[in-house]
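Teaching assistant's notes for section 4

Start the section by putting this record on the projector. Ask students to predict, before seeing the second block, whether C-type lectin domain-containing protein will look compact or extended. Collect guesses on the board.
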Amino acid sequence: MHLSALGQGMDVIYDDSNFKLLLSRQRTSYRNAHEACKWFGGVLASPSSRTKQDRLTKALAEAPSSTITSDFLWIGGYQALASVGNAQAWIWSSNDRYGFTDWIRDGRFQGTSTCLSFRRLSDLPNRWSTKAQCRETLSFVCQVINLEDGTLS
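Reveal the predicted structure now:
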């Protein structure tokens, strides 16, 4: 896969007619990663289905390892605060339905974070973790919808 640089420490690791995946070469907190993705017109990557996660996993596997600065990457899942009549729930920053899950079963990779990180290495059968606290600095992946003539593709 051809890797193209966008400047600002971001590389395009996947690009089709519908959307792009952008990989950060910089490490930052979850909140700053969220804001950076908004600046590029997107959101943190939301692997809300097996198909979307497989696409993300493949793009990361094909990206040069020198462009990834951490084993875990921020993605767009976060645990929303409880509200009256509703318990805390995991939500995707893309507003996709939260149904598919891929939590790492090894307890060493789980913690109390309300921000979701994604293990880029394929040495475990699952990828999602809550070990990194939201203020910790990790690389991150954004997804950006491609626009054509002012309409969504």
